[in-house]
Design a protein that fits this description.
By secondary structure, the protein is mainly α. The chain is built from 13 helices and 2 strands; from the N terminus they run βααααβααααααααα. A two-stranded antiparallel ribbon has the order 1-2.
């Protein structure tokens, strides 16, 4: 298990030549560590990533692990750690990212692999800084008032991940392709929000915007129970439509990716979108149970997407 204490993440200057660099054994082990972490903590992404070329798959795993590490800086901090200390840790992580981009490496396996990924794929540093600011919002903001506030949060914590992945798949992605990647991030994050309403509420967080809750006459009390009432169901139906609109726009950008990446992202998108269908199947009772896509259903989705791609060849 890696340490979540920044003070233990030694940074070491290193030469980096992406054209000729030979991955040493230690770096290979760091990538293996990231793959293992993705396998343990995100079954859907790990499942979809199996169809990528090995180098891209390892880079995606390093990106995933970095996102988890950033989350854990706040979520896995020692009890009693003040908000000021946590904010300082996030500031320090932003500085570490700049160092990694300058060619430093780290004793932390995730940072070592991710630093290599940043340089290998020329991923803009400002995406990582936006991601860190999204984690800061989770630290300092517990409720959202408007769609615009929520969209900013979703861009920071999820769209940035899609943008970074696009740089892993393409050397010079177009602005339009990046915009569609941003849409997919928002689609997936909104799906997460709808799936985890009860869990988030128990943590003191409400992501569903107040203006929308007021429109559908959903009170905070409605989020406390075990049964989804009629007003909350209507709100969920509305947000599902919004999420599906994001998925539909994202579909346009998937066509810009190389075939293996396009297939992988299409599978991930369909698997994640299936959570919304599962919410409908369980009659919107998200306060009573968690919407989960079974392994069999994932295989069926992957097979359908595969057949769709083969028909286009």
């Amino acid at each position: 298990m890696y340490s979540t204490k920044i003070s233990e993440w030694e940074l070491i200057p290193s030469s980096f030549d992406v054209k000729y660099k030979i991955i040493d054994q230690k770096l290979e082990e760091s990538y293996d560590y990231c793959l293992e972490w993705m396998s343990e903590h995100s079954k859907s992404f790990y499942f979809a990533s199996r169809f990528l070329p090995n180098d891209q798959r390892r880079s995606v795993s390093a990106l995933y692990a970095f996102c988890r590490l950033t989350d854990d800086l706040v979520d896995e901090a020692d009890p009693g750690t003040s908000k000021t200390e946590l904010n300082n840790s996030l500031d320090e992580l932003k500085s570490i990212i700049i160092k990694l981009n300058q060619g430093y490496t780290s004793s932390n396996p995730i940072l070592q692999a991710f630093g290599d990924t940043i340089k290998r794929h020329n991923i803009p540093v400002h995406y990582m800084h936006e991601l860190i600011e999204g984690i800061r919002m989770d630290l300092n903001v517990s409720k959202y008032n408007t769609d615009e506030e929520l969209d900013l949060y979703m861009f920071r914590v999820a769209s940035t991940v899609g943008l970074m992945m696009t740089h892993i798949f393409l050397d010079n992605p177009s602005p339009e392709t990046l915009e569609r990647a941003s849409d997919l991030g928002k689609a997936m994050q909104l799906t997460n929000i709808l799936r985890d309403v009860k869990e988030d509420f128990e943590r003191g967080r409400i992501y569903l915007p107040k203006v929308t809750r007021d429109l559908y006459r959903v009170s905070e009390t409605d989020l406390k129970g075990e049964v989804t009432n009629e007003t909350l169901q209507k709100l969920i139906e509305f947000e599902i439509v919004r999420a599906k609109n994001f998925y539909a726009r994202a579909e346009l950008g998937i066509k810009d990716l190389p075939p293996t990446a396009a297939y992988t992202i299409k599978v991930a998108s369909k698997v994640y979108g299936e959570i919304l269908n599962e919410i409908k199947r369980m009659d919107y009772q998200i306060l009573h149970q968690r919407a989960i896509v079974s392994k069999l259903r994932k295989v069926i989705i992957a097979t359908k997407v595969r057949l769709e791609f083969l028909r286009k060849i």
